[in-house]
Amino acid sequence: QGVAKGDRVLVYMPMIPEAVIAMLACARLGAVHSVVFGGFAANELATRINDAKPKVIVSASCGIEVKRIISYKPLLDKAIEISDADSKPQRCIIFQRAMEAATMIEGRDLDWNDLLADAQPHDCVPVAATDPLYILYTSGTTGEPKGVVRDNGGHAVALKWSMKAIYNVDAGDVYWAASDIGWVVGHSYIVYGPLFRGCTTILFEGKPVGTPDAGVFWRVISQHQVKCMFTAPTAFRAIKREDPNAELMKDYDLSNFKALFLAGERLDPDTLKWAER
Questions:
Q1: What are φ and ψ of residue 245, in 5° steps?
Q2: 94: Cβ–Cβ under 8 A, 6 or more apart, which residues?
Q3: Which domains, ranges and CATH numbers included, belong to the chain?
């Protein structure tokens, strides 16, 4: 019942270390991971299950939003129930979080910690440069979501090159992409790119405002001595709206912070000027 080279593994988890561990474990085994944004509705998840036909689904009991807990397991159970008969996973591995315990289905669901207690190290499985590393689905705004396949070799070369040539970070630096692993930016610049370069990467289960305030980005940058940050203009618009004079920034040491990259959507001039100031 183990995962082998070429198997598909669907990862439906919040922004927690276990999600990245699952991705990297797949890469080590030559399996193909497909991360679905945590908290996606059951019908959206079922569409991706039908297409990927995963052998295993790795999930968590819940995720955390600003003012509420989102139960993942009922969404997962419903998605599997409505998915095609030939697409249903053999097993689901569930990471039980302290905030909420999930109800397990006997014979299908396995507890993450129970498996970890008995796990044995496994050698890296050699793969070809053109073998698939992951499948990531488009949003589905124009028809059915399309599974985009990223290979191993070109992916590794391009991302490692970009970390120095574009972001100017070196081994040992701390890099923070304030995105989500459910998106391609999260795959590229939370997980793989920084690790290829030997950087420390930041995994943040929070929002630019409300967790607890508009100073949280500055707190994380100061606490972890972030050198370079990548995020969306929307995040900085939210911070600017809550703290227009950047008063909360004054509480933190940002001396190691050298570069900010805002991308993924249009950056309006007002937000650009505010960020530069």
A1: -100, 10
A2: 59, 60, 61, 73, 102, 104, 109, 110, 111, 112
A3: 8-150 (3.40.50.980), 152-276 (3.40.50.980)
Rounded Cα gap, residues 100 and 216, in angstroms: 25
**CA dist., res. 205 & res. 186, Å (int):** 12
pLDDT in tens, 181-232: 999 999 999 999 999 999 999 999 999 999 999 999 999 999 999 999 999 9
Mean pLDDT of 22-42: 97
What gap in Å lies between CA 127 and CA 252, rounded to an integer?
45
Count CB atoms within 10 A of the CB of residue 25: 17
- DSSP symbols for 185-248: HHIIIIIIHHHHHT-EE----S-SSSSS-TTHHHHHHHHHT-SEEEE-HHHHHHHHHH-TT-GG
Yes or no: say if 16 and 203 are a contact pair by the CB < 8 Å rule.
yes
Reported as a pLDDT band with limits 50, 70 and 90, residue 274 is very high
DSSP class per residue in 58-105:
EEESEEE-SS-EEE-HHHHHHHHHHS-TTT--SEEEEE-BTTBPPPPP
Angle between helices 233-242 and 269-276 (to 10 degrees): 70
Are 36 and 48 in contact by the 8 Å Cβ rule? The answer is yes
pLDDT at 141: 79
Q: What is the pLDDT of residue 1?
A: 67
- Per-residue pLDDT, averaged over 112-129, amounts to 96
Is there a contact between 36 and 89 (Cβ–Cβ < 8 Å)?
no
Q: For residue 84, what pLDDT is reported?
A: 98
Query: Which of helix, strand or coil describes residue 9?
Result: strand
3-class DSSP assignment, residue 13? coil
- Is-above-0.90 flag for pTM? yes
Tell whether omega for the bond before 212 is within 30 degrees of 0, i.e. cis: yes
Q: What's residue 142's pLDDT?
A: 82
